[in-house]
Amino acid sequence: MQEREEKKIALELLETEQAYVNRLHLLDQVFYTELMKEAKNGKTVPEEVVKMIFSNISSIYQFHAKFFLPELQKRMEDWSCNPRIGDVIQKLAPFLKMYGEYVKNFDKAVELITVWSEKSPPFQDLIADIQKRKACANLTLQHHMLEPVQRIPRYELLLKDYVRKLPPESPDRDDAEKALEMIFMVAKHSNAAIAEMERLQNLWVVYQRLGLEDDIVDPSNELIKEGPIQKISTRNNSTSEKYLFLFNNMLLYCVPKVIQVGAEFQVHLRINVDSMKVRELNDAQFPHTFLVSGKQRTLELQAR
Fold first, then answer.
1. Are the C-beta atoms of residues 52 and 110 closer than 8 Å to each other?
2. Cα–Cα distance between 209 and 265 in angstroms, integer?
3. Which ranges carry the DH domain (predicted)?
């Protein structure tokens, strides 16, 4: 009974892998190949765009079709005398790190399909034509492209289930547990790649809003908080709208530009965090006020 349970999961892994390889074949050998052919003829979109949409799908397809699937098939044929899959997954798991690139590129790829479908009717027509084929099963290109993004979490679930069903004395227990750990690390690697890409993208947008000042643009900076603030002028008891960007290493005190051509803000003052002091004030006339002082000057600010 126990062996039947684990064999059932191993078979499910094999069956889903076969279906997955078919999906990868469709993406790489049909969509990518045909769109690339038309791009080379100069009829649809630049070749670079097609390459950017499909990222490293060819490598992923080759890996699964030529290595992972055949290894699983072999193992299932020998199941009666060698009931194990942990070692196979362990051996091939490091290659799954190549998914990081594909997953990181996914949002950009979907955006490119939308943009170029509007720009180039022949491009849109070719995709629509391929989507009508039986192999597409009435699903869109974007739907098929989502499959590799979901594949590693699927391995993780199946393998977790497999390990749970294994009896403690199973010869595959050690290998299967190690394999699960490796798949978990790959999933983490993939998520970290996405998080890092989003951080850099957001950072770049902030730098553009600040006018791409040389001494501020640094990929290692981390934006912690940003928002409008009132600057209090003690001379005439008035306030004026300013804007703050707090990074891990500096506070930027900015003035919103009236004519927003290029940059949205002008940096008036930069205070280094390591020499910065912040003190709350009790001012009846201006509530929620505080002092921020750096080496050069002190600002009296009021929050909302």
1. no
2. 6
3. 5-193
Closest CA to 24 of 74, 88, 99, 77: 99
Find out whether 271 and 292 touch, Cβ atoms under 8 Å. Answer: yes
Q: CB within 8 A of 258, min separation 6: which ones?
A: none
The domain made up of 223-302 has a fold known as PH-domain like (2.30.29)
pTM above 0.90, yes or no: no
**Is residue 269 a contact partner of residue 276, using CB atoms and an 8 Å limit?**
no
- The list of the chain residues with pLDDT below 70 reads 1-3, 214-215, 260-261
Using alpha carbons, select from 293, 266, 290 the residue that is nearest to residue 212.
266
Backbone angles phi, psi at 18, to 5 degrees: -60, -45
Q: What is the C-alpha to C-alpha distance for residues 5 and 61, in angstroms, rounded to an integer?
A: 30
Sorted by where each begins, the domain ranges of the chain are 5-209, 223-302
User: Contact, 258 vs 203, CB < 8 A?
Assistant: no
Of 80, 202, 98, 196, whose CA–CA distance to 152 is shortest? 98
Question: One fold for both 5-209 and 223-302?
Answer: no
Q: State which amino acid sits at residue 47.
A: E
Two tokens at 279?
């003190």
What would the pLDDT profile of 91-132 be if each residue is shown by its tens digit?
888 898 899 889 889 989 999 999 999 999 999 999 999 999
Enumerate long-range contacts of 124-132, CB under 8 Å, 24 or more apart.
126/34, 126/35, 126/38, 126/44, 127/31, 127/35, 130/30, 130/31, 130/34
